[in-house]
Amino acid sequence: MSNRRDRFRKEMAAFEGSADPRRSLDSGHYVSHPRKSLADTIASRIELRPTSTHLLIGGIGSGKTTELLVARDRINKLEDTYAHYIDVSLYADISQIQPGVLLAVAGLALSELTKEIDDGELRIYKDVIRKLAYGYDEKKVSKVQLGFSSIISPTSTYYVHHKGIINLNEGKIKIKQLLEAIDSLKQAAAEKYGHIVLLLDGLDRLHPPDTLAQIVPDVKTLSEHGIGVVLVGPIETAHSQDINFIETTVEKISYQPCFDVVQDPDARDFFAKILAVRASEDFIEQASADNLIYYSGGVLRDLIGLTQASIEEAYMCGSDNLQTAHVQVAVNVFSRPKIFGLSDEEVKILKQVSKEGKFIPRTEQEIRLLGSQRILEYRHPEIRYAVHPAIEPLIETISV
């Protein structure tokens, strides 16, 4: 019994990487893309122009973070360039992000990169960045007027709280101070690392998505101050009315679509290798692997999540390996929450896409379906849209 339990624990652990892609890389689970990956493309462009700016757009769970981390490792093999990965959500509330926040996050990252440099002037600049980023209390002293000129007036102490840029942007004066501090820390960091490139992750959950247009000028500002930037953004950005402005602000936009495991044999083989490199030999039956790949819709996170749920079902059923019946139970559990909250109009759109395969994301509802990955976008071998295969059977049963 313990041998079976230990074996299933091992299989479950191999599919834990969806929570943190860094664990997948450290565990040797990374599988190279069937074609040139975005990591290769971004790393090559950074190698030529270290201060360039890039926007990586894609759906949640499409593999953007993994590509960023692989790009980081490849950039850091260069002698004169250093890429630093940052999850912006660890510094700021993504739902409250605003202009100036990325500058503050960049300043905090540079403070971290130069923490081992013992320099009094740099310590002053780091203190400036910390105060401007998070805010601070300033001590004030005022005299108390007693009305007797011959008596020395006593004093009263009070504090004034200054909100930080991460909490509230209080104007250009703070930004000017922040950039002065960033310049000094960047110069110190460059002496140790060379060119600095910041990989800003976590912004694919921006809501509303048009918030991205408000903060991309920060990216341009960092580039003008000699810092390269790769920024992750939500898939809705590609279909927003702000895309023209973003294209003129960021130098290069790359897109991480879902993998078309139905029409692209290379994508299907790619997903099969992901299962093979994680699971023990013969643990996943071939038919089960085929079903997992299909029902994932070509979304990497869904492939990992469905596989882990199927492994759990197999263990609960007393099976020694993963079979198609276990996959079906996992798909049923996975799919039902995805239909919750759908309006009648959204159900109509899904039915039409399922039946006709035609979809042009223009309205707010259509873009919402795309952002929530109820509708999936593929770009190879050609651009097409499809209802997520895990929810398609349920959509057909809904009456409008």
In short:
The chain is α/β, with parallel strands linked by helices and 400 residues long. It folds into two domains: 1-20 and 259-400, no CATH class; 32-135 and 163-256, Rossmann fold. The protein has helices spanning 2-14, 21-26, 38-48, 64-75, 101-113, 120-134, 172-193, 211-224, 243-249, 265-278, 286-296, 300-316, 324-339, 344-356, 364-371, 392-397, and strands at 53-58, 81-87, 135-143, 155-163, 195-201, 227-234, 252-256, 375-378, 384-387.
The percent range for strand residues is 5-15%
Write the CATH fold name of the largest domain.
Rossmann fold
Q: pLDDT below 50 for ≥5 consecutive residues: which ranges?
A: none
**CATH architecture type of the largest domain:** 3-Layer(aba) Sandwich
Count of distinct strands = 9
Helix/strand order, N-terminal first: HHHEHEHHEEHEHEHEHHHHHHEEH
> What is Rg?
26 Å
If you average the pLDDT, what whole number results?
A: 90
Query: What is the domain tally?
Result: 2
**In which range does the helix fraction lie?**
40-55%
Secondary structure tally, helices:
16
Strand order across the largest sheet: 2-5-6-1-7
- Describe the main β-sheet briefly: 5 strands, parallel
Summarize this structure as a short list of keywords or feature phrases:
five-stranded parallel beta sheet, 400 residues, 9 strands, alpha/beta, Rossmann fold, 50% helix, globular, single chain
Write the layout of secondary structure elements.
Blueprint: H1 2-14, H2 21-26, H3 38-48, E1 53-58, H4 64-75, E2 81-87, H5 101-113, H6 120-134, E3 135-143, E4 155-163, H7 172-193, E5 195-201, H8 211-224, E6 227-234, H9 243-249, E7 252-256, H10 265-278, H11 286-296, H12 300-316, H13 324-339, H14 344-356, H15 364-371, E8 375-378, E9 384-387, H16 392-397
Parallel strand pairs: 1-6, 1-7, 2-5, 5-6
Antiparallel strand pairs: 3-4, 8-9
Helix pairs in contact: 1-12, 3-4, 5-6, 5-7, 5-8, 6-7, 8-9, 11-12, 11-13, 12-13
